[in-house]
Design a protein that fits this description.
binds pyridoxal-5'-phosphate; 408 residues; 14 helices; Aspartate Aminotransferase, domain 2; single chain
Length: 408
């Protein structure tokens, strides 16, 4: 296994006990833990540079602006975008709402279709539902196959000239499945549809290149990639950002304001209404720097190793069902499962008594949960600071649950 074990000491939160046991954090698909480098960068910003940005008639504000814009450049480069193609916002959810309300609202009409996948997180479903109420566009879903990959035959069949936008998650937060975004984008572009990529799970775990993907829009959240909460990223191709309307209005995003109309600031600022998440951007840049220092290939290798180990060990537990591909080459580190008929919340509670944090529920993907006939699952998800002994502890906890519930 790529030896990232030494990294654990970079994450102060991991050095504590929970319910009398060492904390074992297996919920990074929800939110990741933060290394000292990120915590310190935010602390340093507030101690030395804090001022509002883009308003500066004074040195401190100019310094804050410089650091904020340098953060943008660093984050953009991380996904092979230009700084002008990257707008900061509150997170993946707000980025996808921006696309639905800024592009969808103005470009969709009755008879049009939004083609999504059944694997989408609610963040890439509900904004389109809200906008379709205004536009009359219809939502259609690509199902998945029995091996938890996207049904590409069904996708091809559904992709007709009514489809104006395809929304796809690059990596499922429930199944772990990595979707063939480039292949989907090529097909969508052939019929003139745009591709909106939910990369909330992908950017933290695999090297993402927006140009190689040929994504028209792509969204991700800092908090899942070692960065702070409260900030996310919308990437858009420059020509689309130029013509797309802002979904939020207010200060900072205007060029001029008259009594009854306004003109917008240049891209990407027209998508950043109000005081932006400044310290958060500094923290996100520090997270990117930290990940780059490790190298995204090493991040991915570690994840493949530990997920493979988890799939082997969990797969050996009787009556345990894993929902997701078992081949690590096309999946990430989110492993959802059920154990006999024990409710996932009971599993999570028993594991919590051993200091192990897993998530239980529908994971904000109810249409997917319904399609799996599994309204709730338990989910263990891994990141760079997880080691094999975390998986061993999880397996021991699940064995205890079997005994408590008398599973034969
Ligand atoms: N999309 C996916 C695939 C996710 O896993 C999540 C978070 O769990 C989101 C979108 C929403 O991200 P956020 O809550 O940071 O906006």
């Amino acid at each position: 296994m790529t030896d990232l074990a030494d990294l654990r000491s970079d994450f102060p939160i991991l050095d504590q006990k929970m319910n009398g046991h060492p904390l074992i954090y297996l919920d990074s698909a929800s939110t990741s833990q933060k290394p000292n480098a990120v915590i310190d960068a935010i602390d340093d910003f507030y101690r030395t540079t804090n001022a509002n940005v883009h308003r500066g008639a004074y040195g401190l504000s100019n310094d804050a602006t410089d650091r904020y814009e340098a953060a943008r450049a660093r984050v953009a480069a991380f996904v092979n975008a230009d700084a002008g193609e990257v707008a900061f916002n509150r997170g993946t959810t707000s980025a996808l709402n921006q696309v639905a309300y800024g592009w969808g609202l103005y470009n969709l009409k009755p008879g049009d279709r939004v083609l999504l996948t059944l694997m989408e997180h609610h963040a890439n479903i509900v904004p389109w539902q809200l906008v379709s109420r205004h536009t009359g566009a219809e939502l259609v879903y690509v199902p998945h196959t029995g091996d938890y990959t996207l049904d590409l035959d069904a996708f091809t069949e559904l992709l007709d000239d009514r489809v104006k936008v395809v929304g796809v998650t690059a990596m499922s937060n429930v199944l772990g499945t990595i979707n063939p975004v480039r292949q989907i984008a090529d097909a969508a572009h052939q019929i003139g549809a745009l591709v909106v990529v939910d990369a909330a799970q992908a950017v933290p775990h695999v090297a993402v290149d927006v140009r190689a993907m040929d994504a028209d829009f792509l969204a991700f959240s800092a908090h899942k990639m070692l960065g702070p909460t409260g900030i996310g990223v919308l990437y858009g191709k420059a020509e689309l950002l130029e013509t797309m309307e802002p979904a939020e209005g207010g200060g900072e995003m205007i060029s001029d304001v008259q009594l009854d109309s306004s003109t917008w600031a240049a891209v990407p600022h027209k998508f950043e209404a109000g005081t932006p998440p400044i310290a958060e951007a500094i923290g996100l840049a520090a997270a990117v720097e930290y990940l780059e220092r490790i190298g995204m290939d090493a991040v991915r290798n570690h994840e493949v190793e530990i997920t493979g180990y988890a799939l082997d060990r969990l797969g050996a537990i009787d009556a345990l069902t894993i929902y997701g591909p078992t081949d690590t080459s096309n999946r990430g580190g989110a492993v959802s499962f059920t154990l006999a008929d024990i409710h996932p919340h009971d599993l999570a509670t028993i594991l919590d008594q051993r200091g192990i944090a897993v998530r239980a529920g529908h994971h904000c993907a109810r249409p997917l949960a319904r399609s799996l006939n599994a309204p709730a699952t338990a989910r263990a998800s891994f990141y760079i600071y997880n080691v094999r002994s975390d998986v061993d502890a999880l397996v021991d906890g699940l064995q205890e649950a079997r005994e408590i519930f008398g599973v034969a």
